[in-house]
Fold this protein.
Amino acid sequence: MLQGSAINLRRIALFVLISMSVSYEDMWTDDNGHLHEDQHFDFHLTGFNVRGDEYEVSVNRSENTCRQHDYTIDSGTTNILSIFPELETTNSDCAGTYRRYSIDDSKSSHIRVQLLKANSFKVNKTGLLSFDVIAPNTVIPSASTTYYCTVHSLPTHPGKIHGVGFEGIISEKSKGLVHHMEVFLCDPADLVVPDFKGDCADKSKPKSLDRCRHVIAAWAFGAQEFFYPKEAGLALGEENMSKYVRLEIHYNNPDLLPGIRDQSGVRFYFTTSMRQYDIGIMEIGTTYTPMMAIPPGQTAFPWPGLCPSVCTKKALPSGGIRIFGSELHAHLTGTKIWTSLYREGKEMIEVSRDNHYSTWFEEIRNIVPNIDVLPGDSLITTCLFDTRDRKNVTLGGLGLHEEMCVNYLYYYPASQLEVCKSSVAVAAQEAFRILNIPRKRGNNSKISLQLGVSAYEGLKWNMRSVRNLELLYRDGPVSLHCLQPNGTSWLKHPGFVRKQKITSKHFERKDCR
């Protein structure tokens, strides 16, 4: 059973197993979850097998049938439901039996998969060397959201090595609690980074930890192992590089479970045979700030995150870079994410897209063919958020119940551009507040920018204020983070940048005639 969204089931094919044979119908659901027989039969049964309590059914169907009620299979996430009705059937008229049946009345299982995968970079692990960056027997805090940091020394080698890929290692007892992990290379200017194990927000942590900013690996819930193309590798062990890394793990523990010990982390595979290029990882999208907000009761509220031409022109090498991988990231209300490449103000191509995004299933996905980005190009990452089940505004931030909109781009050759992100400019946000929040006469208080303090207090959300905020994010001036690996900005005046005029187009599949 294929579905277009975890909330709104639109197109479904139902298979009913009867004894040792199989009967099947092509069906779809309406917004209420009721089944209807499809007038066009587009599935073809290619295999059926029973192994004990397991049933295996293989089917064949076009990616895009161009029919109203059929789900278009794409390279993003697909939600698959297996439904087990409790009704008995003694004839082959499946459609007649279940046409009046609601999927809400049945038992079901739910998995998320990427059905259409780009060709991955095949690597034989035999003969590869590896090392692990692992949380040292950490007790997961009994808190809903914790970002936990630990310092690690990299293994020593006679010279430079090239990382060829990595994978997440999750402790059995920690599964479901580890939401995502990042490994940051520290600043080479800090010859020694003191040992630290604790909350990343702990004010007593060593100051040098804040300078561990260069991302060398990122893993999120659902991700599989990831290997780089054969012509590129992650440079480690050079004389001008730090010997220390910071492992940052986002623990999501909503039930406040106590005493769970974790030894999760990242395993790096490497070789001493040098490849042609060094790879880089760039973070684009929106910055983590409560200046960005999503009103309650929205079905698809957009956040556009800008990586502008003024940044790429300054920071990218003259020959540009080649993107080969992408990891999209948001939190609980994120439903759709995509990144588009713009050149001279015109949309050229989509870099990556997931129309059915879930924070519980994130992968680093190969970009095939690779996409070249030139100095002066712009990248815009857009996230859509569904807040229909929330009564209060959702702010940008680090917590799982706050929101993010990020794309981690894997590319080569490596550059000195680490972060290229935006948020609404302070002045523009203050103007929005003045126009939309009722104020007492003489009250000219400024917006509070402290993390966790809402800049939207007192606002009564209605169609007008929601639309004004959407237009502000789309067309208003932005504050930029155009950062080098050490956190230094590439721009002299990043605080207030007007968006350039762009021509956007939608890249819909054109298989239908």
Q: What stands out?
A: Residues 122-278 form a domain with the Jelly Rolls fold (CATH 2.60.120.310). The longest strand covers residues 334-343.
